[in-house]
Amino acid sequence: MISLREKILNTASNLFQTQGINSTGVDTIVAVAGTTKMTLYKYFSSKENLILAVLEKGHQDFQTWLNDKLNASAKKPSEKLQKLFDFIEEWVTSPNFTGMGFIKASAEFPSEDNAVHQLSSEQSRQFRQYISTLAAEANIQDADGLALQLSLLFEGAVQAEQMKRGSGAIKYAKIAAKILIDGAVKAH
Hints:
Blueprint lengths: L3 H16 L6 H8 L3 H7 L3 H27 L3 H17 L7 H8 L6 H23 L5 H21 L5 H19 L1
């Protein structure tokens, strides 16, 4: 059985993904979660703290899912790098795909001084670092450069799929990623 905190977090996450963060008020969250504002504020001192918790959970859940998929399917770092976009494609084309929280949140909170924007930026950097680590483990010379290229493909494809499901963006991002990865592997 999930805790009330988790129920509020899951409800907020679903509403933020489907209705937008700024369009979803605390009243809506507590009504859908079947709780009260007092209870919400017991677990999250402000809506901003709830947003940050939703982003942290979403990022952690995605990263855990991706790590598990890569570790189960490949042993060598170069194989993990090659399979990265296979699993990103699986995620993006799944019926449950609602986008990437840090991409949506950064658009809704564009000020770099805002805590939500700062966390979104940090999560983007962490994902790029994750790719860079995979590339470095695969002995890619310019691991950071490849990571930046692949993260741009990832973020662009996710954004395109958020805007129009079935856009084909992930298919072409995967093709471009393979070209970039193959080129980087040959260069080392």
